[in-house]
Design brief:
Blueprint: H1 2-11, H2 19-40, H3 48-56, H4 63-78
Length: 79
């Protein structure tokens, strides 16, 4: 669920998001878009299939994308 939320935030836009979250989202988008297109591009970016796809391909994701996801998840836990 958290990975899905991360991807949704990374690959879609939201008007009511605070500046730090927008920055985090931009980092995710920068580092994970290529992985999304490579492994999961046949799914809509905000669809539930993307979560399963990223989870299934986690070991194949670029180190930059993995690090961006980890950083984003830590930031979300801090609030």
């Amino acid at each position: 669920m958290l990975l899905r939320s991360t991807l949704i935030l990374a690959l879609s836009t939201g008007a009511a998001v605070a500046q730090p979250a927008m920055t985090d989202r931009a980092v995710l988008k920068q580092h994970c878009t290529s992985d999304y297109l490579t492994y999961c591009g046949n799914f809509p970016p905000n669809g539930p299939e993307v979560q399963a796809c990223f989870r299934q391909n986690k070991a194949k994701l670029s180190p930059e994308c993995q690090a961006a996801i980890t950083s984003y998840m830590k930031a979300q836990r801090k609030g």
